[in-house]
Amino acid sequence: MSRILIVDDNDTLGSGVVLMLQRMGHEGVAVTSGPEGLERLKAQPYDLVITDYRMDEMNGLQVLEAVKVQSPETDIMMMTAHGTIEIAVEAMKLGAVDFISKPFPYDELRLKIEKVLEFQAARRASERLGEQNRYLREEIDGRYNFGEIIGEAEQMHSILAAVRKVAATDSSVLIYGESGTGKELVARAVHYQSNRSEGAFVKVNCGALPAELVESELFGHEKGAFTSAIRQKKGKFELAEGGTIFLDEIGDVPLETQVKLLRVLQEKQYDRVGGEQTLDADVRIVAATNRPLKQMVEKGAFREDLFYRLEVIPLYLPPLRERRGDIPLLVEHFMVKKCEEMNITLKRLTDEAMMGLARYPWPGNVRELENVIERTIVLSDGEQVDYQDLPLIFDEVPVDRERQGTGGSIALNERLDEMERDLIARAMDEANHVKTKAASLLGIKTSALYYKLDKYGLE
Ligand SMILES: Nc1ncnc2c1ncn2[C@@H]1O[C@H](COP(=O)(O)OP(=O)(O)OP(=O)(O)O)[C@@H](O)[C@H]1O
Ligand SMILES: [Mg+2]
Hints:
By secondary structure, the protein is α/β, with parallel strands linked by helices. The protein contains 19 helices and 16 strands.
């Protein structure tokens, strides 16, 4: 049984749909305005919102956007009047799962709802799997691929020695270092050299934790604990059970969240949000920051008690410019690595190019160096890399682009194709089969439209 909310100022239509939903075995609620719908959504979770476009106060697109923010797990279907293809297109762009044009026979709506709910169930199942897979994959990547820590500088030797020593304990480790100095690499080394290496290494990007969701992210929640808690969810501490939790960017954690962290570090216990039983936290804490935490404590921006819990063993990673002797080693290391990854013959740097790299200040440290090498390999022709092949780096720091996993399943692609086909067919109708006009309704090039008409056999 799913819960569905209808938003339409025409209450006859609303109650008709509610009846139909009941017969389908679902629970339907009809309201007559956007604000009213959002109120309902605040009180209880819904799997699907079906909203009309033309309404006073809020139109359907505004409802859509508000629902997306308020309840990301809820799907949205748009009802549009005939002749408003642009709104259907806009709704799809903003993330609606489907649309239906008015007037429609109930059967058409019923089929669409069935499809959306089916797809939703599949998506939720695959998200659950994906969540598990991601951790598995991260673990495998981490275990076999966390890579060598390169560095012959004195500072690096003492860090590696400290990592070996601390790995044997369960003490909390706090890693300081500018951006790109290898904090995560060292955190992984601590984990994989420890006797917790069979457990998971779970990274928490503290800077990106939304304040309202902190507890649920860290400690998990029970089904129904709050409006959008449609199912039980494990928190990061639970996922890291028996392993290591890596609190990245710990200096960015707001004070109110610091209290919550303090409790689990002190008591080694936590509760899922909405949970009855208290769970034990069998995890080692490794935290990292590029900010001067001690100074933040003095200024009152970071809790002193939390600071002392975290900084049992401090490790300071030096910026690359303070260990320039390691630059040639790192360059060599990344040249080999990147050429192998890209499957090309190893390129060589001229002495001048190497000197250029050794002189550069590297504000983005090792990460920047890695990016520069990768870029140079891609951009330079031939097997030799000359000083001229590198000039960019002196006037421009490469952007740090986080690599993002490409998700998406076959089901999703099929579904998108189906919706695209539908939109195109409608646009062609509305444009009386004048292709240039249909293309402009859809906001695509006419050539693209030709291609798609052919692809979907719509001619
Ligand atoms: N000593 C090193 N030897 C080899 N590779 C390194 C070294 N230090 C860093 N790297 C590589 O540089 C990149 C950045 O390192 P990492 O992500 O650990 O840095 P960070 O300090 O966490 O950076 P940020 O603050 O930007 O998150 C990674 O690809 C890492 O493998
Ligand atoms: Mg990092």
